[in-house]
Amino acid sequence: MKRKWAFLSLVITIITMLTGCESSLMVLDPKGPQAETTANVIWISIATMAIIVVAVFALLIFVVLKYRASKQSADYEPPHIEGNHIIEAICVGIPVIIIIFLSILTVKSTYEVEATPKGYEDQKPLVVYASTSDWKWHFSYPEEGIETVNYLYIPTDRALEFKLYSFGPITAFWIPQLGGQKYAMSDMVTTLHLAANVPGEYMGRNSNFSGKGFAENTFHVEAMPEEEFDKWAKEVKETAEPLTEEKFNELLKPGHLGQLTFSNTHLDFRPAPEHNHGSHASHEGQKDVQMHEKENSQDESHAEHNHH
Questions:
Q1: Quick one: three-class SS letters along 227-279?
Q2: d(CA 109, CA 37)
Q3: All domains of the chain, ordered by start, with CATH?
Q4: Residue 164's closest CA among 50, 272, 20?
Q5: Is the whole-model pTM more than 0.85?
Q6: Cα(267)–Cα(248) distance, rounded to whole angstroms?
Q7: What digits encode the pLDDT tens for the residues 132-182?
């Protein structure tokens, strides 16, 4: 009876865990090139770990069976062995090779997902500013001149360039079936490149804990052919209400909302903090400032010398 209840408890636990991991398993059902790269890395890592686990357990069983005490006589004395260089080289060399392999794979895939998706390099991307507030997502389309709240429409077969930032705590933009997460911060803009190859509806969310409303800080994503996207954007521009600064300030207050649509963007009166701390552009700007200060100092020194 105890075994029966133990077995049922195990089954219920496994089912509960699998149910809770449903959103996580979306990363293994990619719908875009960036997500496909990530999924491939995950599968290769799983296969590598499975090979290691199977090999270790196979060796364990072999050693336990071959060298068990019952096979030897009572007066058996094991030989004194100083060491085996071949076995030691294998025990050290194989883990080193595995680490090198996974490191190269990780670095290569990281550069791939950070760049423009393969096949879209010569295409002008659709730029979307994705910002968060407690606990909402604001999506601004500067080219189309429209903005949505808590839902995102995107065209398929086109490069997407998301500009991420936050009006509150640090959050993370994540659409599991299109790519990995990336942080959105309050004083800088981070860039995420994605693309959707398959039309459909996807789940997006904030994957970084940001307060009590974090669990419901999600957004709906719908990918559609570009013709349908253009038609939708035009319809929004013609029919939606404009977003005022007063209305936007209300949206920034903590709370949950449904889906909203506006015929302009908050970028008109609340621009994004696009100084990109730590970026190449920032370093170049800093160099310009330093050069300007140096030139001013030299001019002042030259003027003082002439005065004397």
A1: HHHHHHHHHHHHHCECCCHHHHHHHCCCCCCCCEEECCCHHHCCCCCCCCCCC
A2: 7
A3: 28-66+84-115 (no CATH), 126-268 (2.60.40.420)
A4: 272
A5: no
A6: 11
A7: 999 999 999 999 999 999 999 999 999 999 999 999 999 999 999 999 999
Give the pairing of strands 182-184 and 126-133.
unpaired
- The C-alpha atoms of residue 178 and residue 188 are separated, in whole angstroms, by 23
Structure tokens, 238: 């013609």
Residue type, 54: V
